[in-house]
Amino acid sequence: EDKVVQSPLSLVVHEGDTVTLNCSYEVTNFRSLLWYKQEKKAPTFLFMLTSSGIEKKSGRLSSILDKKELSSILNITATQTGDSAIYLCAVHGSSNTGKLIFGQGTTLQVKP
Amino acid sequence: GAVVSQHPSWVICKSGTSVKIECRSLDFQATTMFWYRQFPKQSLMLMATSNEGSKATYEQGVEKDKFLINHASLTLSTLTVTSAHPEDSSFYICSARSYRDRGRFGNQPQHFGDGTRLSIL
Questions:
Q1: Which chain A residue has its CA at the smallest distance from B32's CA?
Q2: Helices assigned H by DSSP within B40-110
Q3: By three-state DSSP, how is residue A65 classified?
Q4: How far apart are CA A66 and CA A105, in angstroms?
Q5: What is the pLDDT of residues B34-62, one digit of tens each?
Q6: Does residue B102 have a pLDDT over 80?
Q7: Three-state secondary structure call for residue B7
Q8: Which residue is closest to A93 within chain B, CA to CA?
Q9: Can you tell me the distance from the alpha carbon of A47 to that of A57, in angstroms, rounded to the nearest whole number?
């Protein structure tokens, strides 16, 4: 059965800290791994990773995929209170319908 | 690009009524649409996958008679929560996929609507 596991499930940090969120997966015929940020509405797309070892970067956020270890990390440097959200990892596997398998999410709280 | 509009954004209604939620793809043809349910502080739970013009495929444990899904056109899918009860209160999110147009939108497998917050009194 396809599975995506995120850790930690929740995290509290102070502004300026750097955080690393983890995502590991077991899926049939991996196609891509996606990271989303969710605040009060639906998830907002952050990154899509398909190749191992290539870092994707957007401002203070970056992510990398390790296909050998079946995992990915999402880094946030110099955290701000606006980074407080649920971060979701999802994997697009063997289904040609585009079905995503979501992890449980990591709830990040950044304190001033 | 890849705009998915979900309506209404929130709804409050009495127990026993039926509620319809619409999901529209505004700038692409959605060959597949997905409906999710999310409880507070939990992840998205896939309820069903619908392809245009055919019956929806429901995930295990989701009552198809309770959650009616219609995907009659390439730009519209609806979820109707029939005879809603307080335990159906949740955040419902739709997403859409276009296999044909995927290259236009960075090859993302799904594009999400803003969600509907449903409260049943």
A1: A97
A2: none
A3: strand
A4: 19
A5: 999 999 888 999 999 998 888 899 999 99
A6: no
A7: strand
A8: B109
A9: 8
